[in-house]
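=== Structure Prediction Worksheet ===
Name of assembly: unnamed complex
Input type: mixed (protein and possibly other molecules)
Chain count: two
Listed entries:
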Amino acid sequence: MTSSELINGTPFYLNEPKMAMGFLIEKLGFVVHAHSVSKNLSGVMVGDNHGNFYEIFSNTRKSADNQNDFNLVIKTTDCLRDFYNMTADGLSILNKPHYVPEGLVFEALDPWGNRYTFLEKRDYTD
Amino acid sequence: MKTFKVLYNQNKLYSEITSEASYTDQRNELSLHVVFNGSEKYKVGKRTVVVFPGNFLILNEGTSYDRDIYSNSIANTFAIFFSKKFLQDFQYGFSSSVQNLLDEPIGCEVVQLSTFLETIYPCKGDIKYNLRHLLDHFNENSDDLLLDDYIYHALLLFYCLYYKEVLNKSNRLSALNASTRDELFKRLSLAKDFILSNYNQDISLEDISTHSCLSPTHLFRTFKQIYNCSPHQYLIQTRLDNARHMLKSTDYTLNEIVNLVGFTCPSTFIKLFKNKFHFTPGSYRNHVA
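=== Predicted Assembly ===
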């Protein structure tokens, strides 16, 4: 994997990034690939086991209820499986899996107020 | 290899990987039958339907059927049998108000179950993804609750598909009264099933018309109203869709595929394939590899 490919990761601005990253690593099998500097912010490049990369930064823009305004879209290959696992792990579910034009999604909230959208992209042209 | 599982709520899953099998006088709950490789032949009453990848068959509770697999390649078949209680609960949940569901939580026991048109349905889009995931989790012996979630979604997606493929399409014959429209739609479904089951054979409009009990002219005119194409165009599309599946998931040579899907001339096949998918068969295979 070249560094230029890694830099193409989706930026994530997380509340409590160290704790939230622990969640991503432990529950979703994310792997830390590199530490990065982008827009004068230091971040961490993590990847999932489907070849998607995400650049994690600390979120400095917090709302009154401590919820993260950013919507963190996590690409998955099996939305219902992830929903089942997240429910079993006690994650707050904001929306159950539902069908959208891109595929199947559900939304969840981690204990630090980060909002995740799990998206299973589907090819409807096939 | 056969795998069978009864879930906690009496829904059942069945998977079989074989090149030869024969079962007679089967009778079950409402069931959905799909094939991921090869093909499976069903005899339901007097008619025979063949399920290929890209389609699935629905059989109502109590329907008696025989099924046979005689395939050159290994066939991978998969079926869901929906328990009566699960179906009643599902239908009750969708047809009742929230207040009613709270006041009468076990009212589902009086729900009259729907019967569906026993025909071949397209296994495309969300239902294809759903059934594929369900089979994978079934093979991995995943938890019943996860399997049940997939079964729930399979049923939900089937209801949506039923609305689109049956209720919506039959309404295109709106000039007719309800019973005539239903009968005509049933016969057109027989025509469609005959094409889907015999797409790799040399079939004519007369063959299709005989099997659907419609005169050739009547068949030609009404088929177009429902499926937006003539029976011949539907046959060509089915051949091309199956050729595309074979290019993607098998090692057959181009000439073998041409023969297997019922074309006689490779150059005609290449031209039609390119017109439909904007790739030649060879470049399509490279593209998806």
